[in-house]
Amino acid sequence: MSTTPYNTSPVTIGEDSNNNTATKTDDTNVTPSLGEEHIIHNNSFAIVDSVHRIKSELTWYQLVHAEIIAVTSAMRKNARWSGMNVNGLNMGGLGMSMGLRKGQANAKEPHARNQENPLMEGFTNLREYLGTVEDVSDLDALLLLNPFLEVIRSGNTTGPIAGTALGSIEKFLHYGIVGLQNPSIAFAMNALSSAATHCKFEASDAASDELVLLRMLQVLQMALTSECGQVLSDEAVCEMMETGLSMCCQMRLSEMLRRSAEHVMINMVISIFERLKTLEEEWVYIDSPREASNTTMTKTSTETEKESQKNNHFTNIPHMSTPHPSPPPTSHTEENESKSQGIETEPPQPQQSSSSTTAKTDDPVTTTEFGVVERDSNEETNNVTESAKSTSTVDQQSQSEDPSEKAADNTESTVEPTPLRPYGLPAIRELLRVLISLLNPHEHKHTDSMRLMSLSILNVAFEVGGKSISRFETLRTLVADEFCKYLFQLAKTDTTPLLTLTLRVISTVIDTMRPHLKLQQELFLFFLIERLSPSTGAGSRNMVIDVDEDGNISLVPTTKDGQSGPAGGEKSNTTATKSHVDVRSHSPSVYGRSGKNQGIDSYAMVSPEVRELLLECLLQCARIPTFMVDLWFNYDCDISCGDLFEEIIQFLSKNSFPDPQGFTGFDSHTLCLDTLLMFIDQMVERIDHGAQLSNGLTSSEVLLEGKSRKRLVLKGAHLFNDSPKKGIKFLIENGVIEKDENGDTTESLAEFLRSTQQLNKKSLGEYLGKPENLPLLQVFMRQFEFAGKRMDEALRLLLETFRLPGESQQIMRVTDTFAEVFYETQPPQIANPEAAQLLAYSIILLNTDQHNPQIRRRMTLEDYMRNLRGVNDKKDFPKDHLQEIYEAIKHDEIVMPEEHEGHLGFNYAWKQLLQRSKSSGHFVVCHTAAYDKDLFRLSWKPALAAIAYAFDTAQDDATLQKAISGFHQCAMLASHFKLYEVFDAIVVNLATMTGLLEESNNNNTIPDPIVDVAGQKYVVSNLAVRFGRNYKGQLAAVVVFAVVTRHGNSMRKGWKKILEIIRNLFINSLLPGSMLQVEDFLSGTTSIPLKPKSPPPSKQQNRRDGSLLSTLSSYLLSPYSSDEGYRADPTEEEVESTMCAVDCVTACKLEELFTDMSSLDLEPLKSLLTSMQEVGYDSKAIEETKGSISYNPVTVLFLEFMVTVAVRNQDRIEVVWPYAVDYIFSVLKHADKQSVLVVERTVVALLRLCICFSGKEHMQEDILSCLKVLRDFPPAVTLAVAEQMMAGIYSLSNANSENLNNLEFVDTILEIKQKVASAM
Predict the structure, then answer these.
(1) Which residues contact 204 (CB under 8 A, 6 or more apart)?
(2) Is pLDDT larger for residue 145 or for residue 45?
(3) What's the Cα-to-Cα distance from 61 to each of 29, 130, 871, rounded to whole Å?
(4) Sign of CA dihedral 523, 524, 525, 526
(5) DSSP state of 350
(6) Could you tell me the pLDDT band of residue 96, with boundaries at 50, 70 and 90?
(7) How far apart are the first and last CA of the chain?
(8) Are 598 and 591 in contact (CB under 8 A)?
């Protein structure tokens, strides 16, 4: 049987411009204006009704008649209806209207056969009714659909007949013949839902039957997703969804049909949860005192269904039964054998909703699956179904009244029952409850295929309406408790398909309902980190990444001293290993607390595929733009939560490194690095947003203060667990435990012990049980809310916070105090404090009796009551009260906190989580950049380590580009946040990777060869060749100089490394020539030589004749002396490497580094000058040198740099002058041992400074002191620099002519001239 394709799209305006209305007599079109809508208000719903237009170029009248003919023709093909006349009249009505009397024979004989065919008669009546309708909008939807629905509901029809009727109904909905304007549309749609979900037809072959079931699914989907679906009731929607779910779970059906049912379910769920967005209020639809959701949270799905059905007896709550899987289908041969032997198969079928009833008959018909019926070949099958409640009255009228009378008086005689309420929150909640119940991992009748189906549907539901779900408390409760609980337990599975879908659903739920799932998200993220981290080795959680001042990256083990770790504190300490405090002891473990080595075993047993899925889930969460900020705000700064932000940053960084025991088979390192870089990039993007707080967020200062207090509390808790006295002393000293106005700390200490989850429960119990701590124990007990609770409930609440001590006297002390405090709440069942004590002891003993495996004979209720007879002030406790206590203890053991293991431990921890969630507040989404500085301060070390490693091990340009971008962005953030030590670390790390910090062998007596390339001479040094071969080193050099040039104001100690690179480039002839140009009083501009030439013998007169030439000018024809030998000729590869190095230095744009030194702030300027002193001139080494000091071109280079900086900072000469003069004086201090060239350049530099600042009045004393240094030169030194000195003195005299009246200045000048003259 062929099926009609269905279309899930709702009817919309503008799809067809043809016949919108039609009558029997003509095809006149009445076209309403486009865009016109009608709004039907019903019980706070706004139902949007599009203008009635049909999607057909035929008239509605023709279409309806064609469908009637199609169904009746299919019926006449069957032998049961082949001879029936469908056009007969109900005789007697016409004669009576004309005054004739209807005889008894006439009432029975004629057309009696027609009365035996109500299905055919229904179509006859419909035809006659259609003749009375002129406009399609006046067509009564219930009267139109009812004959077709009767065919569907009847068990007498075959599959093709039922399929044809279903196709007709689908066409009516799809074409728009049935719309929201039609009378009785609500009752018609609900009758349609009831009929389709209870469709019955005779069985034939499996393929044909499944085609009918597929058509039924299509009708259900069309009914719910079309615009008419808005008027369905909660009961109808529940019936439809229950039918679809049951089909999905029946293994007897073919894979194709089950997949089709799942697809239909998904489309229907989309429509249902889209509707959730339009609900404006949360209905209170449960009349019982206790809401059903609160009483079913901890029960199995079977118990939940029973209780839900029980509630339905008293209320109008819609109910869906949880589907059960059928056994696998038997072979065709087996089925035939069972039938031949008289065995009738009856697999489970979906239970019917309480809103519909099915009439049972004595007819030998057996319903097998979804309306497919089997019968004995000798029997006839009668109609086995009644109409739904909402349509029964109208159906009876339509079948009993004379068609002509009914057609004439239709508008008067048809009275609709009470309007139905459109479906809403009750149906959605019930659907959600059933889908969630299918996920219960401890319900063994639920198969993995059922869980996969449920997960796929739930994922769509939360994708469509997750945020809308969070608006309703009843739905939030289901999600936050049962749903998350089952999901997190399913996340432990190693079944790849189930795990894949589970993790996807978790990600979707967390993403859409984050504000309401704070602690659930914390639990899940810690679970992922624990499952993905080994217990030992570099990737373990007890190792953190540290970066020292020299840029060295290392993994540092954490300790338990309670201090903040390297990544966790606001200030790093590289000299001592700090701890990374574990604050997760209070968080429920998904593994349960089954042993210390559970983590090791679980990690080792996780397959690579599972690790990949878990990691991708974690990274999917991390892709949320505000994810990291939210973690820090909501968890790291919350004293009751773990440091999730720091944990994830450390995890991502460590998993950017290769681990032999880590992930294999996929690119996990790249994924982790990309996520880390994405977090850095998000902070960079927020730079321009400003640091303003929005939505009442807490300031960063307050958060950091709370975070510091959190560290103190954690350290105090750790100390308390080792020694309560030490811990309390520490907490008092640091202000965590405070004294009251009387100097007493009892109240504060009791609050600390009650609220701190990290305390060891055993240590706490032993401390509270000591006799000297009785006042503290009393205050501790009074913090609990025992009012209104039974004593067993109060005792259970108390013993969740600590473990009863082992000594009997301590147990008595704790129990007596508890009884005393509990009696203060005035429980009506307890007469006096002594009775309260006895009852408390009895509960503890009963708990042991009922659950100790060594006790064979358990205490009965009668035994328990007998033991307590007459102890309640010589009376008995109320029997019902003792019975409640007994039943509660019998079915739910009071387990001490540290005894919870496995599934029991998880349930206990989950209960604790739900309890804490009431006070933990909502998860706050932080759309702000106000916290980025604190985040970057915590994350820069792990981030830098990961980026540096990626750069060092990259095998392709894409990875190198990522790393380079990471360096640039980290430098930008460090500069923006003024984190100078971070910026220095980045620069030092990059400088180290260039390979240019390694000094070449300067003591080599054989000079490096010089080659001529394109007319330019280049020195082929070892460093040039090595650097030219180092591709990554060249990239690092370009990056580091770009960063320093752009953010020079943020650098402090990093200047030294930069200057060391420049020094090494200089001594290997790789610096640009423009940086080597120096000014000279005699020869103008010249360059700094690397080695001095041996001056030729000269006579005294020759020196005087060449007075206009500087001794420097003879040195600078080439870097080396012309009479020296060179190393062997370089190879072509070495030359090419040298040219690569030269090009890289050019790309570094070193000239720009010193272009505008006046833009540097004061602190970086001082750091630069200090670094120049340290790199350019080693005063300590010079002091230790005996004899003459060889020429050092580096001293001259940084001397010139120093002068350049001073000249370009004339407005800040007071700052620069001391550094420059100190450098010069250090060189001239040993002028008699220095190389002549060094002394000469130093003298020139000193005089240039004096000339430059001679016009500043406040600098005169400094200039004079410089001249005195020149005056006091030894004669030999004066002779060596005489010409340059005299030229400089002359220039200074001209520049400082206004000070020639200063006698001391003039005398000093004259003394210098006299010394020079005498020396020459």
Answers:
(1) 158, 159
(2) 145
(3) 13, 8, 86
(4) positive
(5) P
(6) low
(7) 124
(8) yes
Whether pTM > 0.85 for this model: the answer is no
pLDDT, residue 93, reads 59
Q: Are 12 and 178 in contact (CB under 8 A)?
A: no
Q: pLDDT digits over 854-910, tens only?
A: 888 999 999 999 999 999 988 999 999 999 999 999 988 887 766 656 777 788 788
pLDDT at 528 over 70: yes
Tokens at 583, concatenated:
């604050």
DSSP character at residue 1050 = G
Amino acid identity, position 1173: Q
Q: Are 1002 and 1070 in contact (CB under 8 A)?
A: no
Between the CA atoms of 610, 611, 617 and 618, what dihedral angle is there, to the nearest 10 degrees?
Answer: 160
With the CA atoms of 775, 781, 783 and 786 taken in that order, what torsion angle do they form, in degrees rounded to the nearest 10?
A: -150
Q: Dump pLDDT digits (tens) for 99-155.
A: 666 555 444 444 444 444 778 888 888 888 888 888 888 888 899 999 999 888 887
Q: Residue 623 carries which side chain, given as an amino acid letter? A: R
- Tokens 């550094």 correspond to 1219
**Which two structure tokens, joined as six digits, stand for 1154?**
């010193």
- The residues pairing with 1017 across neighbouring beta strands, listed in sequence order, are 1012
What are 664-700's pLDDT values in tens digits?
445 788 889 999 999 999 999 998 877 777 777 889 8
Q: Which of 400-414, 678-692, 1272-1286 has the lowest mean pLDDT?
A: 400-414
Tell me, what DSSP letter sits at residue 34?
T
Range picked from 861-865, 1003-1007, 1155-1159 for highest mean pLDDT: 861-865
Count of beta carbons in the 10 Å neighbourhood of residue 332:
10
Q: Phi and psi of 1104, rounded to 5°?
A: -70, -35
Asked whether 529 and 483 are in contact (CB, 8 A), the reply is no
CA distance 1103 to 1088: 22
The band of 388, judged by pLDDT with boundaries at 50, 70 and 90, is very low
Whole-angstrom distance, CA of residue 425 vs CA of residue 283: 7
**How many angstroms separate the CA atoms of 1025 and 1292, rounded?**
46
How confident is the model over 815-859, as pLDDT tens digits?
999 999 999 999 999 999 999 999 999 999 999 899 888 888 999
| Token representation of residue 1129 | 């000729």
Q: Which residue has the higher pLDDT, 388 or 762?
A: 762
Residues whose CB falls within 8 Å of the CB of residue 331, separated by 6 or more in sequence, listed in order: none
User: What are the residue ranges of helices labelled H in 116-233?
Assistant: 118-130, 141-153, 159-175, 185-197, 206-225
| HSE of 28, CA atoms in CB hemisphere, 13 A | 7
* Higher per-residue pLDDT: 356 or 1053: 1053
CB contact burial 221-243 (16+ within 10 A = b; e otherwise):
bbbbbbbbbbbbbbbbbbbbbbb
607 DSSP 8-state letter: -
Rounded distance between C-alpha atoms, residue 809 and residue 827, angstroms? 26
- For residue 499, give every residue at least 6 positions away whose Cβ sits within 8 Å of its Cβ, in sequence order, or none: 490, 491, 493, 610, 613
What is the pairing mode between strands 372-375 and 201-202? parallel
Burial of 1180 (0-12, 13-18, 19+ CB in 10 A): exposed
* DSSP class of 158: B
CA 511/CA 466 separation, integer angstroms:
9
Where do the DSSP E strands lie in 879-1015?
1010-1013
Distance CA 699, CA 678 (A): 25
Number of Cα atoms under 13 Å in the Cβ half of residue 425: 21
From 243, 242, 248, 273, select the one nearest 262 (Cα to Cα). Answer: 248
State residue 281's pLDDT score: 60
CA 608 to chain centre: 22
Q: Which among 447, 295, 315 has a CA at the least distance from the CA of 305?
A: 295
Query: Which is nearest to 176 in space by CA: 29, 59, 54?
Result: 54
